[in-house]
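Side project, low priority. Logging it here so it doesn't get lost.
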Amino acid sequence: MMVLFNTKPAARLASVAGVLTAAASIFAGRSIQVFLPVVNYFCFWTALCFAQRGFAMVSRPKMVFLDKLCISQDDAVLKQKGILGLAAFLDRSKKLTILWSPRYFSRLWCCYELATFLRHSTRQSIEIMPTKLAVLFFGMFCSTQFMSLVYVLLAAVLADEAAGQSQRIVEMVTISGLMSIAFLLPAVLCLHAGIGVAGSIGELENQLRAFRIQNCRCFCCSVDHIHPETKAPLPCDRELILEAVKKWYFEDISSPQERAWEKFNQTAQQELLPLVLDSVGTGLCMSYFSTLVWAASLPSLVFWLPAYIENEHSFEGFHLMVWWVRCCMHWVTFPLGILWYFQVYWWLCLLGLRAEKCWQGKRKLISCLLLLPLFFFGIGPTYVVEFTRAATETPSLLPVLPFSLLLAAVFSQRCRLPGARSTDRRKPAQPAEQKKEANEVVDATIHANLPRCDTAADGDLVSWTF
């Protein structure tokens, strides 16, 4: 939830703090510069954890209905009222965020929530975030932030002794060697975890292609409609939900239920499958990861900007312009390299997933075998850019060539899901406006069985999350 709703506000605040601390570092001494990045980290992590509380002080924050927290889990009466009011909350929500786990499409109430939202909305209002992928991204961000700090500190220490071109090359070799050693163990662990996450995302696609609401399970049927503690009879939620789906997705309510259910199954596949293929691979997830990488790179400005300005006095005219071009490339290379590294990492995770199907139970071995190509193809391009810069002096623009290739590679490539095919842009079952009009006749019947929650009518909910 923090990644979904607080990442971008945190990055904006960190950007402002980064610019201010970088400006302050120009006039501060070395003893103070060391502590300035703490301001960036403090601003970012504070906003990441408490951004919405801060918005609440000055404006209306985003409101999120998270069913696990907003529906009482202890009071049976309140829990029943909350469940019966789900349709009302969904009708007032602008966006549906699915925190996906492997059990999601097998739970009947989750499918009911999806059916309720899809009858008035389209896939543009839905986003899917696999929970394991969010955890993996956040873990990689933390390691990226740590590696960024280590890199800057090593460069700052060695830069004092690097006077000439040969010394700069020695500096780069030393930093590269130390960073590579620190890279080994985390890379193996990330590959091992990434292969499992790639398998989960592949399972998400397979679940959608084979989705049938008739096969979903609910609690009441699993206990034979007898409460396990009170032994009181339980009404069948399955019959009520499937009847609601029939009335929402088939105008002729006297038709066989199978036809109505199949219509919803087809609608869910047509709406969600393109969303999964387009966004889960890189679209939605990579947008958040790119924001996190940007935030991780900002504190380094505190160290680099004073060094850039200190050495610019040796140049003027065209040479000065080339100097600042090289400085910009130097600072941007790290976040670009991280984004390229993650794309290569994800491709290798997909390759490792296929290899695991052939070598069952050999994931640790596969992770170790993938370490070498991850190092050469993932980190290699960044090293090429940095070595080219270190081996040349102003006014040489030779580093622009490998930097441009790295930039083009980052923004032209997209990770794909395992076994993903081209998105099938089939015509949706019905446009959202037509579906809303077609369902107005049957809404009164449904709401008689599933009463609306009056508290949801006070204002629009920005997001519904489950």
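Brief comment: Strands lie at 64-66, 96-100, 126-130, 463-465.
Revisit when time allows.
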